[in-house]
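Design job #97: recover the sequence.
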């Protein structure tokens, strides 16, 4: 068993925060609001019960094996704090993580790699949505994952992905495989 190592614990927290932002498209407020009742982890799946804007609820399910191992390790390491604080993400003082701390985590790792980019938690949400759209996921599913009540909010991402949409249309639509002679 490992002794108490604050650097290892902080690194584990950082990885979990960044992975959750990247893998789920959560808003930073939603991320910081996760509790043991909304973070349902088994040996092969994580279900997040997310309460978004206007208390609109949605479920996000992850089953990537590496992520499940990571989340189980985190939950084991932080079990006492998550139970006593009723929060999943716990800062170095043993208190629930706040949105400003998430911004600091991102900034810290940008500095580590020498980047001067200003990347915000919300940019992870945009990357999540755009990546799914570019991979060909139906916009209605993306709308559901992001917790948008209106499809028009989700459609903001379509202009970003239009080169990929052009490519997908050429590759996937039957018209791209048909020829005719004049």
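Job complete. Output follows.
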């Amino acid at each position: 068993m490992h002794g108490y190592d604050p650097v290892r614990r902080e690194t584990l927290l950082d990885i979990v925060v960044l992975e959750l932002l990247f893998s789920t498209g959560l808003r930073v407020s939603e991320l910081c609001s996760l509790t043991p009742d909304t973070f349902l982890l088994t040996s092969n799946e994580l279900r997040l019960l997310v309460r978004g804007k206007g208390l609109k609820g949605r479920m996000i399910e992850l089953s990537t094996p590496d992520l499940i191992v990571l989340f189980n390790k985190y939950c084991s390491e932080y079990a006492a704090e998550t139970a006593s604080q009723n929060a999943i993400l716990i800062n170095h003082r043993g208190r629930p993580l706040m949105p400003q701390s998430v911004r600091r985590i991102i900034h810290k790792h940008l500095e580590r790699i020498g980047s001067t980019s200003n990347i915000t938690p919300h940019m992870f949400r945009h990357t999540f949505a755009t990546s799914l759209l570019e991979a060909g996921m139906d916009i209605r599913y993306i709308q559901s994952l992001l917790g948008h009540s209106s499809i028009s909010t989700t459609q903001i991402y379509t202009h970003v992905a239009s080169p990929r949409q052009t490519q997908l249309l050429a590759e996937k639509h039957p018209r791209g495989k048909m020829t005719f002679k004049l």
